[in-house]
Fold Protein NIF3-like protein.
Amino acid sequence: MATPTVSPFSQAVVGAMRKLYPEALADSSFDNTGLLLEAPYRKGHLKNSVLLTVDLTTAVADEAVARKDSIIVTYHPIIFRGLKSITQSNTQQNTLLRLAQEGISVYSPHTAVDAAKGGLNDFLAFCVTHPDATHDLSVITPVKNAPKGFEEAGYGRIVRFQEPLTLGVIVNRITMWLQLSGISIAVPQSTQARKKSEIKISSVGICAGSGGSMLNGLDVDLLFTGEMSHHEALAATEQGRCVITTFHSNSERRFLGARMRDVLREGVKNEIQEVIEKGQWEEGLEATFKVDTSAVDKDPFDILMTDQRDW
């Protein structure tokens, strides 16, 4: 068998990702998903391992190089628009050059993960409903012409509780499941001091990342997203709604370890087995592998806790 020019393991990861989160689910009006860097293959140079991250920063690239990962799956695309040149003066382009030199490929699923059933937005819905909130769940914007088996996919979610929960209970659930020390909250200005946590919530609009445009004008009690502009949040509270934001990537990062890692591990296992059964797996290449989340990937903002007396 001729030596392949692309890592067989990286190909298995890409195949698994495309089955779990088809690129056809992504919002092609702005997104750039798929295999963004297909690095040359040097047999024995790297390990059969994949590193999951929200953002592909210099620190994450350093981590992948040190770990000798074959491929990075980065939720946010490191390439968003067409490149006219690739230079070392641009930090993101320099990262791509370095990874290509090391033979590490890069794949990004982004909004395909948001839209998929069991994906990121469903996980955020889980965060506000688990363990005991009986509720109905619906999609805000369904994906048109979704692939077979993904007919229920769509962007954003709406949770409607059969019995209202207090804002305080929902806040506790979000901070617990996303493992956050604090979040940003906006409520109508008419709310009395020390009564914010008692506000009754019967419905929640959910959108990972930046959800202002998706959630704007939605007929729900609470908007839950990663980030929202000042004016979007002000408009929501003026309409009697509450807003919870966690910072952009904090609405996404926990999903990698809590859900995607195990799902991808099973997907890659199945993909490798299929290749082996077809007799197309490279001779002498081990079928064992690892899927890990980045230890250095983090939101650029830290949450600084201050006076909570009016909550």
